[in-house]
Amino acid sequence: MSMLKGKRIGICATRRAEDIAEYIAQHGGIPVLEDLVRIEYLPEEEVNRSLENALLLKPSYFLFTTGEGAKRVFQIARKREDFKEIKDLMLKGRIFARGYKTRKVLLEESFKDFQTVDHTRDFISLLEPIEGRCVFVQMYGEEIPELEKQIPKGGGVLLKVWVYRYIPDEEKIDAFIDRFLKDHYHAVIFTSAFQVKNLFQRAKERELNRKLAQKMTNNVLILAVGRTTAKALFEEGVLRVLFPQKERLILALKELEKAFGNG
């Protein structure tokens, strides 16, 4: 019998929420999608300006952080009819993909000589030399403080290419808090620090943050997809957070099954 059978599991995810829900349902669990934040796509004109800057600055490094974001960058470059120029620039530099979905998009675009990284810090460690060079980063909906700090510190120039942003939905956050505090869930999954920060910011406004953190620690299994998300939960006072050693969704879900199996 699956360890998830009959367990009501909240899914706080901006990406891959349906994949998570499908896995939980297949293993007998009851998935509840909680879209605390929504994705808002930027106008094409803004992406166009970033691509124009790329042609001027001629980046030496290219980081694509999501498959969805990479696909949209390439789509807009084709509309501008300078995809070949962008591609030539990329081939002259070093290309990095964060995660397997991003890797898949790059392969579909016939890129072969690129490196896959699991986390932003892994990418930063491979930026050498950087002084006087431009780093092109397809942003994934929220700021990346590590890049903001490290690239200028090393003498480089950060070119942020925004495709979409995450927008908190206060009404849905309130509804989630209320359900959570009424013991609606056996477990909750978080896939980004952004969700955690916005959830607790709203909880603080309602003076419910301590109660929320306490219940997460003592009464409900809380799963983070990786270390960064787990760290955000710890910083908010949640003392018990499950997360895999390697940031992979399937490994995170296995951690949840194991925890239910252990009682």
- CATH uppermost class of the largest domain: Alpha Beta
Sheet-strand content, in percent, reads 15-25%
Going across the biggest sheet, name each strand in turn: 6-5-4-7-8
Based on the structure given, which CATH architecture of the largest domain is correct?
3-Layer(aba) Sandwich
List descriptors.
Rossmann fold, about 260 residues, 2 domains, five-stranded parallel sheet, single chain, four-stranded parallel sheet, about 20% strand, alpha/beta, elongated
Description:
There is one protein chain. The protein has twelve helices and eleven strands. The chain has helices at 17-26, 44-57, 67-80, 83-92, 100-108, 120-125, 145-153, 170-181, 193-205, 209-218, 227-235, 249-261, and strands spanning 8-12, 30-33, 37-41, 61-64, 94-98, 115-117, 134-138, 157-161, 164-168, 187-190, 221-224. The two termini are 14 Å apart. The longest helix has 14 residues, at 44-57. It is α/β, with parallel strands linked by helices and 263 residues long. It folds into two domains: 8-36 and 169-261, Rossmann fold, CATH 3.40.50.10090; 41-165, Rossmann fold (3-Layer(aba) Sandwich). The mean pLDDT is 91. α2 crosses α3 (67-80), α3 runs parallel beside α5 and α9 (193-205) runs parallel beside α11.
Short characterization:
The chain is of the alpha/beta class. It is built from twelve helices and eleven strands.
What's the layout of helices and strands?
Layout: E1 8-12, H1 17-26, E2 30-33, E3 37-41, H2 44-57, E4 61-64, H3 67-80, H4 83-92, E5 94-98, H5 100-108, E6 115-117, H6 120-125, E7 134-138, H7 145-153, E8 157-161, E9 164-168, H8 170-181, E10 187-190, H9 193-205, H10 209-218, E11 221-224, H11 227-235, H12 249-261
Parallel strand pairs: 1-2, 1-10, 4-5, 4-7, 5-6, 7-8, 10-11
Antiparallel strand pairs: 3-9
Helix pairs in contact: 2-3, 3-5, 8-9, 9-11
